[in-house]
Amino acid sequence: MSPGGAAALVVIRGALKGHRYDLIGDAFVIGREQHCDLLIDDATVSRKHALLQRIEEKWFITDTSKNGTHVNSRRVTGALALANGDKIAISTAAQLYFAGPEDTVPLLLEEGQAIGRMHIDLKTHEVRLRGQLLDPALSLAQYRLLEFLYLSGDEIRTRDEVSRAVWTEADQAGITEQMIDALVKRLRDRLGQLDDGHDYILTMRGHGFRFSNPQL
């Protein structure tokens, strides 16, 4: 449970997927400015995109953006009361899950822990599949590739983008598609040793790669 039985927001889609934010005070600002409580660095997100306010132990959300805030696919107009399980879309950049104080499933997660089948601790670089630690650790190139795709969410990444994320600028000239594909295969093999029931890295023919991390 979160501190004091507080409500929380869990990011379920977007670059911050898996992060949890406890709603401790009486106001919580989502936007692109540095001082926002939940900072989403995306051009489609307004500087102050949405405001959550607690009034008599109930949370309300107000859209303060240009591109819109939606709750359960309906655009927010005025101050809307949030209910446990509501899904909040911040423009097209992120989707949040509102967990009321009574919701124990997302709140069992530690701050920043993913709710998907895979979780990467971005500080320690530990990779867990269905709660099990991937050991021994990945090679540096494998980890860079995995972290890049993991943070990309559902976005398709081209081979050029993968190359820039994994190798240094000085190495770029010597990187071939065959080398990238071989690295992807080695990473798939390593993940498959611990979890052979799911393919985390999908090849999108003619486009590149997409990460797949379904919820447990």
Task: Give structural notes.
The protein has helices spanning 140-151, 159-166, 177-194; strands spanning 7-13, 20-23, 27-31, 38-39, 50-55, 58-63, 69-71, 74-75, 79-81, 87-90, 94-99, 118-120, 127-129, 132-133, 201-204, 208-211. By secondary structure, the protein is an alpha+beta fold. The chain folds into two domains: 8-99, Sandwich (Tumour Suppressor Smad4); 118-211, Winged helix-like DNA-binding domain superfamily/Winged helix DNA-binding domain (Arc Repressor Mutant, subunit A), CATH 1.10.10.10. The protein has a six-stranded antiparallel β-sheet, with no helix packed on it. The protein has a five-stranded mixed β-sheet with strand order 4-3-5-6-9, with no helix packed on it. Strand 1 and strand 2 (20-23) form a beta hairpin. Mean pLDDT is 87; it is low at 104-114.
Summarize the helix and strand pattern as letters: EEEEEEEEEEEEEEHHHEE
Number of helices: 3
Query: What do the pLDDT scores average to?
Result: 87
The CATH topology annotation of the largest domain reads as Arc Repressor Mutant, subunit A
CATH superfamily of the largest domain: Winged helix-like DNA-binding domain superfamily/Winged helix DNA-binding domain
Topology record:
Blueprint: E1 7-13, E2 20-23, E3 27-31, E4 38-39, E5 50-55, E6 58-63, E7 69-71, E8 74-75, E9 79-81, E10 87-90, E11 94-99, E12 118-120, E13 127-129, E14 132-133, H1 140-151, H2 159-166, H3 177-194, E15 201-204, E16 208-211
Parallel strand pairs: 3-4
Antiparallel strand pairs: 1-2, 1-11, 3-5, 5-6, 6-9, 7-8, 7-10, 10-11, 12-13, 13-14, 15-16
Helix pairs in contact: 1-3
